[in-house]
Design a protein that fits this description.
Mean pLDDT of chain A: 95
Number of domains of chain A: 1
Number of helices of chain B: 2
Strand order of the largest sheet of chain A: 3-2-1-4-5-6-7-8
Largest sheet of chain B: 4 strands, mixed
Radius of gyration of chain A: 18 Å
CATH architecture of chain A: 3-Layer(aba) Sandwich
Structural class of chain A: alpha/beta
CATH topology of chain B: Translation Initiation Factor IF3
Radius of gyration of chain B: 11 Å
Strand content of chain B: 35-45%
Strand order of the largest sheet of chain B: 1-2-4-3
Oligomer: heterodimer
Mean pLDDT of chain B: 96
Structural class of chain B: alpha+beta
Distance between the termini of chain B: 14 Å
Shape of chain A: globular
Low-confidence stretches of chain A: none
CATH class of chain A: Alpha Beta
Distance between the termini of chain A: 43 Å
Helix content of chain B: 25-40%
CATH architecture of chain B: 2-Layer Sandwich
Shape of chain B: globular
Order of helices and strands of chain A: HHHEHEHEHEHEEHHEE
CATH superfamily of chain A: NAD(P)-binding Rossmann-like Domain
Number of strands of chain A: 8
Strand content of chain A: 15-25%
Order of helices and strands of chain B: EHEHEE
Largest interface: A-B, 11 and 12 residues
């Protein structure tokens, strides 16, 4: 690949790294990453992936920017209120780096559209805030041999792991979404915005490592973070042979649309 | 094979970045002669090239503040 003088300068801090180099940068520019959710996790990770020069970023979100989002969804600004999040995010990305091609999807991901969308991408990032979509992304990616990054955050806590074909999946740990009354409702839930920055940034790091092909991914490991304690914990988890999705005798062979919680968290 | 690269007009970090991009195009054992200025480039380019697995064969003074660093790709 022939970089322009401007590209060499823009990506100089990537290229200078032994593990990245011009070859790694070329891989990034040729990569296609799908980000589900342009919210609390999507915001930081989209900014970093765009800045790093990931060539194509698909972004799925059907919501518009709400005032209560701005406390943590740092890709959206006050003058973006009522704009579609995918449009607001795409504009910021184009202002950071014109090398990045954004493909916006103003849809809600479900069992009828997920397979058609993920097939075009090298890596998928779960930046959603609800269990039904988390299970849907996990199931579709495992069924189609796609690698993805999972994350979930609440209050002062966050967790993340990376899946590649053959490694532990979300269903290896959690067989199904928790009962609705076990999920905090809008009035109970809170989140310290910077926690999303920590976990979203880890997802961005994992994505870049995967695309470049370097380092040890968070596979078969669940990384948890507690902001109040200021501590990370790593739980080693192997693929579960009794997993209903990727185990020896799978019982889940098609995609399911679980019911959404009564009130969607904004 | 022997190749040449002139980075006398470049500044940090482009000095090493351009050296590295050139080295990536070569095969192990190839020689790259980098023409650079004394000061930051002369201090950093050979050191970083060596840290990243290449061998510095020779550093020659050409004229005024211009030097040549001969690197063997690792």
């Amino acid at each position: 690949m022939n970089f322009t003088e401007e590209q060499i300068y823009r990506y100089s801090r990537n290229i200078i790294l032994k593990e990245v180099g011009g070859k790694g940068q070329e891989k990034l520019l040729n990569s296609k990453v799908l980000v589900v959710g342009a919210g609390e996790l999507g915001s930081p990770l989209l900014l970093y992936l765009a800045a790093a020069g990931v060539g194509t970023l698909g972004i799925i979100d059907s919501d518009v920017v709400d005032l209560s989002n701005l406390q943590r969804q740092v890709i959206h600004f006050t003058d973006d209120l009522t704009r579609y999040k995918v449009e607001s995010a795409a504009e910021k990305i184009s202002r950071i780096n014109a090398d990045v091609n954004v493909i916006p999807y103003k849809v809600r991901l479900d069992s009828s559209n997920i397979e058609g969308i993920i097939k075009d991408y090298d890596f998928i990032i779960d930046g959603t805030d609800n269990f039904p979509t988390k299970f849907l992304i996990n199931d579709a990616c495992v069924m189609h041999g796609k690698s993805f990054s999972h994350a979930r955050i609440l209050r002062f806590d966050g967790q993340t792991f990376t899946h590649v074909p053959g490694s532990m999946c979300y269903r290896c740990i959690f067989k199904e979404p928790p009962p609705k009354d076990a999920v905090p409702t809008c009035s109970e839930a809170g989140i310290l915005g910077a926690v999303a920055g920590v976990i979203g940034s880890i997802q961005a790091v994992e994505t870049l490592k995967y695309l470049i092909g370097t380092g040890d991914l968070l596979t078969n490991r669940l990384l948890t973070f507690n902001a109040l304690k200021g501590s990370f914990r790593e739980v080693k988890l192997n693929k579960n042979k009794n997993c209903p999705l990727c185990g020896v005798n799978p019982t889940i062979t098609e995609l399911t649309d679980y019911e959404q919680p009564a009130c969607d968290l904004k | 094979m022997r190749y040449k690269l002139d980075i006398t007009k470049d500044h940090c970090p482009m000095t090493y970045v351009k050296t590295k991009l050139e080295l990536e195009k070569l095969s192990s054992g190839d020689i790259l002669e980098v023409i650079l200025k004394k000061g930051e480039p002369l201090e950093n380019v050979p050191r970083t090239a060596e840290e990243q697995g290449n061998k510095i064969i020779e550093i020659k003074h050409l004229q005024d503040d211009i030097h040549i660093v001969v690197i063997e790709k690792g």
